[in-house]
Amino acid sequence: QVQLVESGGGLVQAGGSLRLSCVVAGVASSRRFMAWYRQAPGKQRELVASITSGGTTDFARAVKGRFTISRDDAKKMLNLQMNSLKPEDTAVYYCQDVEYNVWGQGTQVTVSS
Question: What is the mean pLDDT of residues 96-105?
C-alpha cells in the first residue's frame, strides 16, 4: 500500500525559498508518475508540478521558472524546490501518486509579503 508523507512547509517572506519533500513508502521504487498539488483557502486544489516515471516534468504556468520537481530514488523521495516565492503561493501542498491516486496529508506553505 502506497503511503505518502510530506514535510518542509513553513513560513517564509516573499522572495524566499522552501524545499518540500514527500517520502514514498510501501513501494519497491519511487520511480513513478508523481505530482505536487496545492490548495489555497477557498480555492480548488490545483496541479503545481508533475514528473513521470521516465523523468519528464511539467509545471503550472504560475510556477514555471520558479519551482523545480525532482526525485531521489535512493531515498524514495519526491521533492519540490520553490524559489522566488510569492504571497499567492500560500497554500497547503500535497504530493500525489498519480497511478494509484494516493495523497499525502499535506504541508502548509505561507508566504508573507
Answer: 94
